[in-house]
Design a protein that fits this description.
The chain is 39% helix and 17% strand. By secondary structure, the chain is an alpha/beta fold. The structure holds adenosine-5'-diphosphate and magnesium ion.
């Protein structure tokens, strides 16, 4: 239950003075519904109104506050577009105040001729004439105090002016109360951090440009609070998982033995090492929480299969979660192929499976007749009941936060711990994994299966498109299969599609009957049909939007063409290129660029030509883009932070992790005064999932 002290923070914004239904709705779009959301809505800049020059000293585009005498009004003739102008002056120069769509009588009252006024706003020189359009403030000299010396500038939403936003945020801040201190006093002292509410107030009342800098002290304090709440919640959940009676799986047994014997290749050293690390976890009576990192094509699937077979030969079940339908079906196919002769049952379940067939499958699953279930999120729907799920493998799943972990854990046999193996081809920097996974163990596949020729990567101007198309003739005659990735168009998905369809028609004319098209708007079965035709060799050219980005495996594909490669990020280009060079043939990747406008785009093309090493590419990506963008929260599924920014504050993450660990060592149930304060923090930062694992305070 949320502590009473926090009630005001969770009140709706409509309860604030000056916020009606319409404004509340506008606010909800950009800021949120609650007072708390307004607290986190920090200014991004300041307006400094302290500059108070004589009119004659004003340079172009200056924010000024000036004392003037009002002169004549120049009202536009009715029904014209001309603005309303009011002349004013001091003893050095004249200035025009300009108003569009003005109400003349209002201005006559505000700016009576012959009287003094203090005016604040942005002055500019237009056609040699000093002027100010729509001043921010116009007051009588005895009310000069009503003009703030420095004003915060908030990110705005259409329909709410800066002034109104400022007023609303101030009203929200008035509702806030001082909260008990949850920080370790020594840390607070060392960092010179202010109290919580003082920090909040300072951030909303900046006095210098540095005060709105995300790396300023006050902001760091609040960022730390957020990381601490995040790490504490993850630690609580992890402790809960560890508390459950784990099970020791049989890592040595007939199924694993047979699989390895049957494999048409030898496992790489790297694969063997990762399998050994995973086996140690599986064989121990604690639950596993491990991340398997390995570049595209490094052979993660077989490692996962070995782990899943350990579950099966122990008499339990395993599940493999894939991010998309296509990938789920592909995993299903390759696992089925690998399991030939092993006498186990593998099935696939996605959102597409419905009706009787689905019911039958669920019945078999509950009866324990299915050993391995592959699928999308459908695997963890409410009505999916496992007989005895011991291991969940999560592929290409960056979005693996607290909630998802709980959903997966819920499918285990009650009271029993479950093993989890997450797999990713994106090498995530250590500090960043901490925020998503907490203190997860990491295994890395650093070595690629032998016999792979490097991919020949070339960058070519899009002007030479016709030439490129003609050059495909030869490899096609030699039996090559070709991916053609269509440009990422910024505006909308529809135009993505149009571009892909157009390219499809063009190529289909040149290579009739041999070209297929897949895109995100297609229905699952349709998509699968085209993919299968391409994988099976009935189609030789696959035109695609980026739907094929992750994981698809067609070893015969040896040519990858990427149109407008300059619009893709490095990680994405690397993923796409990883689709070729999977078999023993020589592969080519053609990066067709349009306009290499930025330094950055040129650097990306160069790196792609130079290396295929995913870890190096990730590093370069980090360097070129900064951590914030690399794992831009939306696309990567890193937790959405409200205050903290991975770009500016990631150095605080390991500190928060250690802090959280120590807290739970010394105050297991958060019962001390500081522990109680930390409970408040968890609720405040909406990380209360962990609290239910505490004995009530
Ligand atoms: P990832 O999922 O890491 O991108 P996959 O598991 O799909 O990679 O493996 C890519 C390809 O490499 C598959 O065709 C697989 O059969 C093959 N492969 C995996 N391990 C080896 C190995 N040790 N030697 C040769 N080929 C391998
Ligand atoms: Mg894979």
């Amino acid at each position: 239950m949320r502590p009473e002290i926090l009630y005001p923070f969770f009140a709706e914004t409509v309860s604030l003075p000056g916020v009606g239904g319409r404004i509340a709705q506008l606010l909800e779009k950009v800021v949120g519904r609650r007072v708390l959301d307004l607290c986190w809505h920090f200014p991004v800049d300041i307006i400094d109104r302290r500059n108070s020059p004589k009119l004659g000293d004003i340079r172009h585009e200056q924010m000024v506050t000036v004392e003037v005498e009002i002169g004549s009004h120049d009202a536009p003739p009715p029904r014209t577009k001309r603005p309303y102008r009011v002349w004013c002056h001091d003893d050095t120069a004249q200035m025009q105040l300009v108003f569009f769509h003005a109400k003349g009588d209002y201005l006559l009252r505000q700016l009576p001729e012959g009287e003094k006024r203090v005016i604040s706003g942005k002055a500019e020189i237009f056609n040699g004439q000093l002027q100010m359009t729509h001043p921010d403030y116009m007051v009588a000299p005895n009310k000069r105090d009503e003009i703030p010396a420095i004003e915060p500038v908030y990110p705005l939403t259409a329909g709410i002016s800066g002034r109104v936003m400022g007023r609303i945020v101030r009203a929200a801040l008035e509702r806030t109360v001082e909260l008990p201190e949850w920080l370790d006093p020594a840390l607070k002292k060392r960092e010179g951090w202010p109290d919580w509410r003082a920090a909040l107030m300072a951030l909303h009342h900046p006095e210098a440009p540095g005060d709105v800098d995300p790396s300023c002290k006050t902001r760091r304090r609040l960022a730390y609070d957020e990381f601490l709440a995040n790490q504490l919640a993850l630690a609580l959940i992890r402790r809960q998982e560890k508390r459950k009676k784990g099970r020791a799986l049989k890592t040595e047994g007939p199924l694993v033995e047979k699989l390895i014997e049957k494999l048409p290749y030898r496992l790489t050293n790297s694969q063997q090492e990762c399998i050994a690390e995973i086996n140690t976890d599986l064989a121990s009576p604690h639950s596993m929480m491990r991340l398997l990192q390995g570049d595209v094509g490094s052979g993660k699937t077989v490692v996962a299969m070995v782990a899943m077979l350990a579950a099966v030969q122990s008499g339990a079940q395993a599940a493999l979660l894939a991010p998309t339908e296509i990938l789920a079906r592909q995993h299903y196919d390759s696992l089925t192929e690998m399991s030939e002769g092993l006498d186990i049952r593998i099935e696939v379940l996605t959102g597409r499976d419905k009706g009787k067939a689905r019911e039958r499958l669920l019945a078999d699953l509950a009866a324990g007749e299915i050993d391995i279930l592959v699928g999308t999120h459908a695997l963890f729907q409410k009505d999916v009941v496992y007989h005895d799920l011991a291991l969940a493998v999560i592929d290409e799943q960056h979005r693996f936060g607290v909630e998802q972990r709980l959903a997966v854990a819920a499918k285990g046999t009650s009271g029993q711990g479950m093993d989890m193996l997450a797999m990713t081809a994106t090498p995530i920097p250590r500090t960043l994994t901490l925020t998503a996974y907490g203190d997860m163990d990491v295994s890395r596949l650093t070595e690629k299966p032998p016999g792979r020729l490097p991919v020949d990567t070339r960058t070519i101007s899009l002007n030479r498109l016709d030439e490129v198309v003609r050059s495909l003739q030869r490899p096609l005659e030699g039996g090559a299969r070709i991916y053609w990735i269509c440009p990422l168009v910024e505006e909308s998905e529809k135009s993505d599609l149009a571009a892909a369809e157009e390219r499809f028609r063009q190529l289909d004319q040149i290579f009739p009957g041999r070209v297929g098209l897949v895109h995100g708007k297609m229905k699952g079965p349709e998509k699968d049909k085209v993919m299968a035709a391409f994988a099976g060799g009935a189609l030789d050219v696959l035109v695609a939007t980026t739907v094929i980005e992750v994981g698809v495996n067609v070893p015969e594909a040896t040519v990858m063409v990427i149109e407008h490669a300059e619009r893709f990020g490095l990680a994405q280009l690397h993923q796409l290129r990883g689709r070729v060079g999977r078999g023993s043939g020589q592969s080519v990747c053609l990066l067709l660029y349009g306009h290499l406008g930025s330094e950055n785009a040129r650097a990306r093309m160069k790196i792609m030509r130079e290396t295929e090493d995913g870890f190096r590419i990730a590093e370069e990506d980090l360097r070129l883009r900064g951590a914030g963008e690399l794992l831009g929260t939306r696309q990567s599924g890193m937790p959405d932070f409200k205050v903290a920014s991975l770009e500016f504050h990631s150095d605080l993450i390991p500190m928060a992790r250690d802090d959280a660990k120590l807290i739970l060592q010394t105050d297991r149930e958060l019962k001390t005064d500081r522990g109680q304060a930390l409970r408040v923090l968890l609720y405040l930062m909406e990380q209360d999932e962990g609290i239910r694992y505490l004995r009530s305070g």
